[in-house]
Amino acid sequence: RVLFVAGQTGVAPGETGGGEALFVAQFGEALRRVLRVVQVAGGYTLDVGRMTVFVTDMELYRRSRKALSVTWKAHMGDHYPAMALVEVKSLVDPQAKVEIEATAVIGGL
C-alpha cells in the first residue's frame, strides 16, 4: 500500500525568533508529523521510501547541517530514504522555514 504524505510544516503556535535553532526545531517537528501520519496509517519509519524537503533559505539549511544531523538521527536513526532538497521563495504558512512531504510503502516487504 502506497501512502503519500502531504507537506508537513513544524511551526508552533506563537513561535517567534529565527536563526538555526528555530530552523532545526521546525525541521524536527515537520519530520515528527510526517512520521506520525505514517504510523497512523500502520507504517514504520523504515517504510518511508522518499522525501522532499522544501526550505526557504538554503544557506540556513547548510549552516544548520550539524544540528539537523542530530535531529534526523533522533527521528530516523540510520534510515535515509531517497531525498530531494528544494529551496523555495516561501511556503503557504509565512512562518514556516521548512516543509517535508513523503511517500511510504506500508507492508511492502
Number of strands: 4
Shape: globular
Distance between the termini: 11 Å
Average pLDDT number: 93
Q: Give the low-pLDDT segments.
A: none
SSE string, helices as H and strands as E: EHEHHEE
Question: What structural class do the secondary elements suggest?
Answer: alpha+beta
Question: How many helical stretches?
Answer: 3
Biggest beta sheet attributes:
4 strands, mixed
Quote the beta fraction. 25-35%
Helical amount among residues, as a percent range? 25-40%
What does this structure look like?
The chain is of the alpha+beta class and 109 residues long. It has 3 helices and 4 strands, in the order βαβααββ. The chain has a 4-stranded mixed sheet with strand order 1-4-2-3.
How does the SSE layout of this entry go?
Elements: E1 2-9, H1 19-40, E2 48-55, H2 58-63, H3 65-76, E3 82-87, E4 98-105
Parallel strand pairs: 2-3
Antiparallel strand pairs: 1-4, 2-4
Which key features would you list for this structure?
globular; alpha+beta; 4 strands; 4-stranded mixed β-sheet
Give a short overview.
The chain is of the alpha+beta class. Helices cover 37% and strands 28% of the residues. It has a four-stranded mixed sheet.
